[in-house]
Write a structure and sequence with these properties.
mainly beta, 299 residues, 25-stranded antiparallel β-sheet
């Protein structure tokens, strides 16, 4: 039997194969079983079972849970919906999908009036087309603007090639609309060949380029290059050119273990040819060559 009713105060309609009215004192709970479907003009909820407690403004839906709300698809193990404040509390195996964005988390809270989601821990935000994955804890995501921030333990990796780069920082922001990721405070970019450090990083992953600002340095087995800022270009998820400016300082060791220190207003590093990088200093260059002191042999 199909049951169709309307909660006048919330304008939420529902249908199911079976309905039970449970009483405990003055409180009344409606229990829906089998093919549960609840909906209004902006929210569509499906599940196997549901409990509605009007006195508590609470709706609970479990098993085979699917939610569609204003262009967003959601699945989870269970839902508690605050009907008065229009807030969804989702638990276990939560997956939120909007366009090419996918959000996974153990728990997630959505305020349907502000269209913002809060994730306390273990969030994964994925750009399914670009293969960009952002992870972390204490996240806030705006479903309307399709952007969000990770406030603790953020990390960004390339799912197409996890060894190409890995970004870590104190805070991170992802905008799917603009296809940009930004990181702030103690930023580190780990690649196959080097580690890049800076105060702020902006990555335009749809354009394959980015900017680093503040105390920027590049460190590898040969030495370290430091400057205030850098503009880098990526091809096939590999950095093929880095332009550093201003006040560039380069320190490296020669094959003979001598040291060289160079300063220049700008430096362009061409990495397009594997194992054959080219460094071009511009605006003038000053250098100091330090010979390694050799110990005298004992007679």
């Amino acid at each position: 039997m199909i049951v169709l009713l309307m909660f006048v105060f919330s304008k939420l309609e529902f249908e199911a194969e079976k309905m039970e009215i449970l009483r405990e004192g003055s409180a009344r709970v409606t229990h829906l079983v089998g093919g549960v479907h609840l909906y209004d003009s902006k929210l569509d909820i499906k599940g196997a079972q549901a409990w509605f407690a009007p006195s508590e403004n609470s709706l609970i839906v479990v098993d085979s849970l699917k939610i569609v709300t204003q262009g967003v698809d959601i699945t989870a193990d269970s839902l508690r919906f605050d009907t008065e404040n229009q807030i969804s509390y989702l638990h276990k195996r939560v997956v939120v999908t909007k366009d090419k964005t996918e959000i996974k988390a153990p728990q997630l809270v959505i305020n349907h009036r502000t269209r913002k989601a809060s994730i306390p821990y273990g969030v994964q935000i994925r750009d399914k087309e670009e293969g960009i994955l952002v992870t972390g804890d204490d996240a806030v995501y705006d479903l309307e603007a399709n952007e969000g921030s990770i406030l603790r333990n953020p990390g960004l990796t390339d799912e197409k090639d996890s060894t190409s780069f890995n970004i870590r920082s104190k805070r991170m922001h992802l905008s799917q609309k603009n296809e940009t990721a930004s990181a702030a405070e103690d930023v580190k970019v780990f690649t196959r060949d080097a580690t890049v450090s800076c105060d702020t990083l902006i990555l335009y992953y749809n354009k394959d380029e980015g900017y680093a600002f503040g105390k920027t340095s590049i460190r590898n087995t040969d030495g370290v290059i430091s400057s205030d800022s850098a503009h880098f270009y990526i091809a096939e998820r590999k950095i093929n050119e880095i332009y550093l400016y201003p006040s560039v300082r380069t320190k490296y060791r020669t094959e003979g273990e001598d040291s060289v220190v160079l300063t220049s207003p700008a430096l362009d590093i061409d990495l397009s040819v594997k194992n054959s990088e080219k460094l071009i200093f511009s605006g003038g260059v000053n250098g100091t060559y330090y010979w390694k002191e050799k110990k005298s042999e004992e007679e």
